[in-house]
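Q: I'm teaching a short session on how sequence maps to structure, and I want students to see two examples side by side rather than one. Could you give me a first protein with its sequence written out and its structure tokens following it? Keep the formatting plain so it prints cleanly on a handout.
A: Of course. Example one:
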Amino acid sequence: MTYVSNFPSVDVGNGVIRQVLSHNDALMVVSFDFEIGGEGSLHNHPHVQSTYVESGYFTFTIDGESFDVKAGDSFVIPSNAVHGCKCHSAGKLIDTFTPRRDDFL
């Protein structure tokens, strides 16, 4: 079964707002809105993550390597990779996780 969510936006701190867009047991799509200077602190999780940059300009770090991304870019973060980002121009990231991140529900 697929679930289209009506989840509210959640202020997760550091200039970031999260909203679950849709999910099922195997997959979850989540929107993250960033203020200028907003940060996704370094972290890791067992889920494979695909990130699409809808808008803005960010520096991402994955397992100690940093790179810049802008609107239209996308990339995959492997399971358990330590990663995070800093927002240089306000923007939105669309992240897809497999399997679903139950901690976001």
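Q: Perfect. Now a second example for contrast.
A: Example two:
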Amino acid sequence: MNIIYLHGFQSSSNSIKGQQLKQYCAQYRPNDVVHLPDLNMHPQHALDLLFTQITNLSDVVLVGSSLGGFYATQLVAKHGIPAVLINPAMRPWHLFRTLFATTTLPYAVTADWSLDEAQLDHLEHISVPFVQDASKILVLLQQGDEVLDYREAQRYYSEASQGAMLMIDCHGSHAMDDFADKIPAVLQFLSDSIK
């Protein structure tokens, strides 16, 4: 499998979870390759980059965290590829407007990229109104997520006639600190879904 890890907002290709996934595959699943693109750019550019990777690789699956989970949801709808979502952001445009308010937008994320109102409008515009290909999605949620209300994702991914598979932990955090323990189950789900 070619596993593309989609990091969250204000993270990077050096994301802890992405590195854990890469190290696990290197040690236990050498035929699986983990790709860690840097997605710190305009959302459409990030999706264009991911589209290029998806079309140039075979047996592609996605693992997306937070904003990366939002991107992965859009890509599953468009390309029908399997994905595991880690505390996915459901309405990132709303979240960022709440966090930063209009007084701090544009918000400098990196030296090369600032998030602005037009990009938030774009995120809202590209959002799929209901989950598609839900059977190809595993959603990992933690009730202790201090950034996102896990119930919003729980509702969204359960609404389809055949809802996505959900694993909901009591407590936890937005970072999902125990992700390393979940990697075997994540890879099994992705491997089963790509067949």
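Q: What should students look for in example two?
A: Point them to this: The helical segments are 16-28, 43-56, 67-79, 92-100, 117-126, 150-158, 179-194. Also worth mentioning: The two ends are 10 Å apart (CA to CA).
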